[in-house]
Write a structure and sequence with these properties.
two-stranded antiparallel sheet, five-stranded mixed β-sheet, alpha/beta, Protein-Tyrosine Phosphatase, Chain A, single chain
Amino acid sequence: MRNSSARLKKTAYMAVIATGLWVLANPAFPNELAYERVINLEGTTNTRDIGGYQTSDLRTIRPRQIIRSENLSRLTAGDFQQLEEIGVKTVIDLRTDREHDKSPTVWLGDNPPQFYHFPVGDAQNDWFKAQRRLMKKSRFTEEQSLELMKDGYHMIAEEGPPSYQKLMGVVLDQSNWPILIHCNAGKDRAGVAVTLILEALGVDRETIMEEFLLTNEIGRSEEKSVLLANESKKYSRNGRGPSASAWYPIVGVQAEMLEAFYASVNEQYGSMDAFLTELGVDQEARSALIASLTTEQPKLAMVE
């Protein structure tokens, strides 16, 4: 029994290691498929700019002002130089205290930004414990992992507001821009942060979901899930392990996750507008943010 437990722990550990090796072995995005919003760093697979999206009144979000990413602990000196060239002035870290302490960001550059640590969730809360239990299992299904991740987004809505209130306070101050927001994988807590910013700017839900799901393409979630399925089988006693589809909700994102967050917000606050107001982003603050973080669409001259 003890050997079985140790083997399962090793499986989960190797899955984490495999993810790290993926980052080092695979560029963030193939050059031939590069998007303008993708920031190609050697040490991450999911760093991108939210500039360029349009608001419902046809204003455009200014580029290179709000950047989202996964954790920065694997960045190279060249990566940090690239972020300095962009002009990053502020980094907001949404990881738990445990994640923050285990993989600290050591800035390898001449102009380090201002760092803020606003943890969303706690490593000892029920959700993170449930995640660790699932990862130690030799078998779990796609339905189980998706349900776990949906619960995670409920947790974010319940435990995250104090940190998101601080985050939005930093975002509302233009002197802090450009801002890089990150969590551990760069997809869940950072994804919610970007969702809140886009909501405050008046971007429509369809576009917000499109931005959210872009993680799967840029972060190559399907390929990561295949890699983890293969790695977990290698270290399983019977040569079996969670399938790639079972790993997918853990390494990627699905619409149901963000929908779970919206459902929790509606249940607790009545609406997204009420939630943003609770975070200190009332209509006046939203108008100011729209005026500073977006630009008007150029007006075409009339031809007579």
